[in-house]
Amino acid sequence: MLKVKVIGHENFYGLTDVLRLFWGGLSENREAGYITCQEGPDMVIISEARDGEVFTYQEGTKPVNGVLEGALPVNREVKRSLYVFLTKLTGKTFPWGSLTGIRPTLVAVEENYNPEALSSKYCVREDKAKLACETAFREGEILKKIPEDTLGVYVGVPFCPTRCEYCSFISQDIVKHMDRLPLYAQALEKEIKLVAPGMKKPLNSVYMGGGTPTVFDNKEFAQVIKAIRENLPIDANTEFTVEAGRPDTLNEYKLDVMADAGIERICINPQTMKDETLSRLGRAHTVQNIIDMYELARKKGFTNINMDLIAGLKYEVPEDYLNSLNKVIQLEPDNITVHTLYKKRRANMSREDVLDVEGTRIGTDEAVARGYGILAEHGYQPYYMYRQKDTGHGLENTGFAKAGKECYYNVAMMTDKRSVLSFGAGGVTKRIFDGGRLERCPCIKDAMGYIRSVEEMAQRKIAFFEGSEFL
Asked: For the chain, which terminus, N or C, has the lower number of CB atoms within 10 Å?
């Protein structure tokens, strides 16, 4: 068992993030001042900050200052120092080095879009450093087009027809809980009608996500779309996205409802274009269903369609991901979002499977890089990015779009530079104050709890924005 003793600083969280890259089985004891790692080697490591310097060394050996090029604040230096120590100990390196945070583009902005600085200061691999800087720059250009005094809206629908093996989202299996969907639709409509009268300005974006928002039956789906469209201050400049998601929940009627409501951007997300994998993951549709629904959506006039893929899926080899990517590109969607499989807390898929501990999917990293090159060749550019803990091969999630087809909501949400009002269970409302200070107001996660307390949730959000220019 590995133990890391923390002396002279309190960045347990950052050290744990670095350790997680190498091993699992982590636990903290802040009172005693150490972190244990059940899967690590039998040794004690000291992480010490003293007089502005950082030392990482094995207990019983002489402390050595491990500072690399470029001074970093202590909270970042302890992470970098531990990362360097562990790479020497194990011989392993990771694409993003000691950058374990969710938004590497923020650090790219701090470093003036300089890839060399990311590599030298944070041990980020050259290709990832360039990706972060390119994405950050484009993200910034899009952000300039979203007025600071406008608000984004998220409408959450935490239900899916089945739960995919890799997912732990708060979705409910409607086969067992069919009665909850009408109640949830009514609750959403009620919350929107309670909050909307106080909204003062047009919206920059509306994003209806999940779960799978199209899981409602035809009547309920139309009811929710109508409530959004008729009550919220949507105008001609408001981007309106619906995650149509899985083709087994989508039909011509729902496409017509969205088209009639002026919605131009939808998501039809295959995750993979391999039938065998879809079946084994628990998705009740085929590749042909995806293609048919995509083509029908185009016929209905949708001008901005996103499609998601997951790299590093269990049951697949890297070449399967590239085959899926090429099949999706042939359809010519406007956006393609590339996710890397990561371990969600309550997913049925184990951490070992996600992180490919047995090495059955060696080459995923290379396949993702090749895929980025293929996307560039077909006119897709990265415009937003985020990372998650326990991601296979230490990779990232990146949104690509053709020029002019980027999703404003994604940029507003990921940069934390624009306020967002969230409706529905599990959503997080965010308010940006003068000077850039951010505060969050989470909504209850449980769908039935939300239904029971929807008036309280609405009043909480109204109070949260009290005195603002939005409500």
From this structure: N
d(CA 44, CA 172): 44
pLDDT for the residue 282? 81
Express as a percent the part of the chain with pLDDT over 90.
76
Q: Enter the pTM of the model.
A: 0.92
User: Which tokens in the block code for residue 278?
Assistant: 């879809």
Q: Label each residue of the chain as H, E or C.
A: CEEEEEECCCCHHHHHHHHHHHCCCEEEECCCCEEEECCCCCEEEEEEEECCEEEEEECCCCCCECCCCCCCCHHHHHHHHHHHHHHHHHCCCCCCCCCCCCCHHHHHHHCCCCHHHHHHHHCCCHHHHHHHHHHHHHHHHHHCCCCCCCEEEEEEECCECCCCCCCCCCCCECCCCCCHHHHHHHHHHHHHHHHHHHCCCCEEEEEEEECCHHHCCHHHHHHHHHHHHHHCCCCCCCEEEEEEECHHHCCHHHHHHHHHCCCCEEEECCECCCHHHHHHHCCCCCHHHHHHHHHHHHHCCCCEEEEEEEECCCCCCHHHHHHHHHHHHHHCCCEEEEEECECCCCCCCCHHHHCCCCCCCCCHHHHHHHHHHHHHHCCCEEEEEECCCCEHHHCCEEEEECCCCCCHHHHHHHHCCCCEEEECCCCEEEEECCCCCEEEEECCCCHHHHHHCHHHHHHHHHHHCCCCCCC
Show Cβ contacts of residue 334 under 8 Å, excluding neighbours closer than 6 positions: 303, 304, 305, 306, 401, 402, 405
Q: How confident is the model at residue 38 (pLDDT cuts 50, 70, 90)?
A: very high
- Tens of pLDDT, residue by residue over 368-397, are 999 999 999 999 999 999 998 777 778 999
- Over residues 418-454, the pLDDT tens digits come to 999 999 999 999 999 988 899 999 999 888 899 999 9
Q: How far is CA 197 from the centre of its chain?
A: 31
- Region 113-134 average pLDDT: 97
- Chain mean pLDDT for the chain: 90
Region of 271 (left: φ > 0; alpha: ψ -120 to 50; beta: rest) is left
Confidence of residue 171 (pLDDT cuts 50, 70, 90): very low
Read off the pLDDT band of 71 (50, 70, 90). Answer: confident
State how far the Cα of 402 lies from the Cα of 23, in Å rounded to an integer. 38
**362-to-123, 314, 318, 371, 452 alpha-carbon distances in Å:** 22, 12, 8, 15, 48
